[in-house]
Automatic annotation (TrEMBL):
EC annotation from Swiss-Prot or TrEMBL: 4.4.1.11
Keywords tagged on the record: Lyase, Pyridoxal phosphate
The keyword Lyase is assigned to this record: yes
GO molecular function: methionine gamma-lyase activity
Protein name: L-methionine gamma-lyase
Pfam family, one: Cys_Met_Meta_PP
InterPro entries: Cys/Met-Metab_PyrdxlP-dep_enz, Cys_met_metab_PP, L-Met_gamma_lys, PyrdxlP-dep_Trfase, PyrdxlP-dep_Trfase_major, PyrdxlP-dep_Trfase_small
Gene name per UniProt: megL
Catalytic activity: L-methionine + H2O = methanethiol + 2-oxobutanoate + NH4(+)
Similarity comment: family membership: Belongs to the trans-sulfuration enzymes family. L-methionine gamma-lyase subfamily.
Length: 401
């Protein structure tokens, strides 16, 4: 099946119903092991001399269908599925970095990624450093003789700051350093880092790829040789693999990814404009805002501006928590990309494990909130935010009077 359109591949890539008794929906191969027709076949498969299934930790037909679809959607040669987004990040970093090497990271990463980097430095002697990645000159200045990987979030969680991926790739290629991008906030529908020259893309598949809040999973996509190296080491031996049922749910979720992303983006555009105008909101962080510092980068490398908005309000942690507690429709939860609109407080939730001074360097303040704009009517999302903000303003006015 060939197509020029993402929407078609999101539904059909990686599955041929003729191979499965005409079943429109892919079957779930809910099995731990596979039977060999004879002992010699088992020997050949274990030796890598023959293709075929052996054990679901190594390969499973349903999981393979998800991997093939993700490879097509990201424009990569091979994808690997994992039990969580952090399992994917861990497998890639542990599979490629060696003791004594150095990882260069974007300024700000997901809290658990920060924890993993700390763990790798303390236990395995793999160091890391953070930088803004705003220019090739800065990258050159921060590269060490032992820098072996560049790891980027773009947009960065939760500040939404963007990194010019082409600039980083061009600079990294001069030194032969691979570039890894966490593409969770965009999904392959909005941003395709591999087509910009990056080497590996990772996702928390839990988020937009699933879209329904009922799966925990991860995926990494890249060149075949590199991904097979990771598959034969970090994935196989650490064993953080995806279950067949989760792979099936993700195949189902991805079918509607383009439609959902369009709605997420449209809703976020409305909400961002209204938040920016509100007198109790100090600032918004949203790639689609023309005043956003990296707006030109967003226009260059993102199809649309995404469904994520961070914003700061007057006051501090107490006011931020009170706003969340006043919400009625919007749910307080730390995931994103679901049909429901979700809000969280990064300083005390997703990034609470990051030391305070590092959080400040990442611009994660006590009055910062992160909003994952859902699929509800945007008017209802705004009505809920507006009444919660109004409640804070009313309390402030009463305190002054």
């Amino acid at each position: 099946m060939k197509s020029n359109y993402f929407e078609t591949y999101a539904i059909h890539a990686g599955y041929d119903n003729r191979e499965h008794s005409g079943s429109l929906s892919p079957p779930i191969f809910q099995t731990s092991t596979f039977v060999f027709p004879d002992a010699e076949t088992g020997e050949r498969r274990f030796a890598g001399m023959e293709e075929g299934y052996v054990y679901s930790r190594l390969k499973n037909p349903t999981v393979c269908q998800f991997e093939e679809r993700m490879g097509v959607l990201e424009g990569g040669e091979k994808a690997l599925a994992f039990a969580s987004g952090m399992a994917a990040v861990s497998a890639v970093l542990l599979g490629l970095a060696k003791t004594g090497e150095h990882i260069l990271c974007s300024e700000g990463v997901y809290g658990c990624t920060y924890g993993l980097l700390q763990f790798m430095e303390e236990r395995f002697g793999i160091s890391h450093s953070f930088l803004s990645m705003e220019s090739a000159e800065e990258l050159h200045a921060k590269m060490l003789p032992n820098t072996s990987l560049i790891y980027i979030e773009s947009p960065i969680n939760p500040t939404m700051k963007l990194v010019d991926l082409e600039m980083v790739v061009n600079t990294a290629k001069e030194k032969g350093i691979p570039v890894i991008v966490d593409n969770t906030f965009c999904s392959p529908y909005l941003q395709r880092p591999l087509e910009l020259g990056c080497d590996i893309v990772v996702h928390s598949a839990t988020k937009y790829l699933c879209g329904h809040g009922d799966v925990v999973g991860g995926v990494a996509v890249g060149r075949r040789e590199t991904m097979e190296q990771i598959a034969h080491t970090a994935q196989k031996d650490i064993g953080g693999i995806m279950s067949p049922f989760d792979a099936w749910l993700l195949l189902r979720g991805i079918k509607t990814l383009p439609v959902r992303m369009d709605r997420h983006c449209d809703n976020a555009e409305h909400i961002a404009v209204l938040l920016k105008r509100h007198p109790y909101v100090e600032s918004i962080f949203y790639p689609g805002d023309p005043d956003f510092p990296q707006y030109n980068i967003a226009c260059k490398q993102m199809k649309k501006s995404g469904g994520m908005i961070s914003f700061s309000i007057k006051g501090g942690k107490e006011e931020a928590q009170e706003l969340m507690n006043n919400l009625q429709l919007i749910k307080i939860a730390v995931s994103l990309g679901d049909a429901e609109t979700l809000i969280q407080h990064p300083a005390t939730m997703t990034h609470s494990g990051v030391p305070e001074h590092e959080r400040e360097n990442m611009s994660i303040t006590q009055n910062l909130l992160r909003l994952s704009v859902g699929l509800e009517a945007w008017q209802d999302i705004w009505a809920d935010l507006e009444q919660a903000l109004h409640s804070l303003m009313k309390k402030e006015d009463q305190a002054i009077s």
